[in-house]
Amino acid sequence: MSHQITLHHLNVSRSDRLFWLLEETKLPYNVKVHFRLPTRQAPPSLHAVSPLGRAPTLELDGKTLTESAFIIHQILSLPEVIKGAEDGSLDIQVEETEDGVFWSHFAEGSMMNLFQASAIIGATGQGWKIGAVGGLDEAGKEAVGKYSQWLTEGYLRPQIQGTIDLAESFLTKQGKQWFSGTDKPGEGDFMMFFAINSLLAGSRKDSGFNVGPGLKGWYERVLARPAAKKGLERLKQEEESAKSKI
Ligand SMILES: N[C@@H](CCC(=O)N[C@@H](CS)C(=O)NCC(=O)O)C(=O)O
């Protein structure tokens, strides 16, 4: 059965996980690009298709799916994807593994929540500090600046580094190639991709976190895969083509 798939992508977002996954599955898909507002929030067009206005959102045969982990789970459960993995035409871990489920939950539940908190405090703290919001006097602005600096640097940074170190030690100390724990990438790998990509090549590249050789090697293995290359290229092309129509 051929499926009708539309990926709703927001620039600089977790939907990079799905570009990689969809290319690995060889399923054809359409892309609708949504651009963030100057406040960095999702635009009304994404709210129109997604209950919380979040990306990724995927339309699969008329059904609206949200939450990347759930979307990945649904795609990996499609009969043709299971069959492709069984007959060897797809080189991905489709059957759930203990490691794969763990890292899939870890990616959002322990890693991204901290990154997200830090990003929100950093951006909103700056807004209060420069007087764009809050209406504070100089002493108040200074206090907000000090508190947000302590939260992001003193409180959250060590916790975020701890999540990076745990992922590093899984790959190095346990000698694993993939977060699936097998010789193929699976749901844990697709889910971990957003954070690691942002640390090594994206918005967190210069944020001063220590990313070890295990994660760097994992990232190189991902990027060496034709499907990951194709997915990232498609993401770029879709954004460029949508931008040219604005
Ligand atoms: N847990 C969700 C998180 C989705 C999420 O927060 N997406 C961000 C982009 S990375 C978003 O849509 N932000 C827009 C906004 O907050 O307005 C998932 O894994 O899909």
UniProtKB/TrEMBL annotation:
Name a GO molecular-function annotation. transferase activity
- Describe the location of the GST C-terminal domain by residue ranges: 84-246
Instruction: Fetch the InterPro entries from UniProt.
Output: Glutathione-S-Trfase_C-like (IPR010987), Glutathione-S-Trfase_C_sf (IPR036282), Glutathione_S-Trfase_N (IPR004045), Thioredoxin-like_sf (IPR036249)
Pfam families assigned to the protein according to its UniProt record, in alphabetical order: GST_N_2
Q: Which UniProt keywords apply?
A: Transferase
Enumerate the CDD domains for this protein. Answer: GST_N_GTT1_like (cd03046)
State whether keyword Cytoplasm applies. no
Hey, which family's this protein in? Belongs to the GST superfamily.
Q: What is this protein called?
A: Glutathione transferase
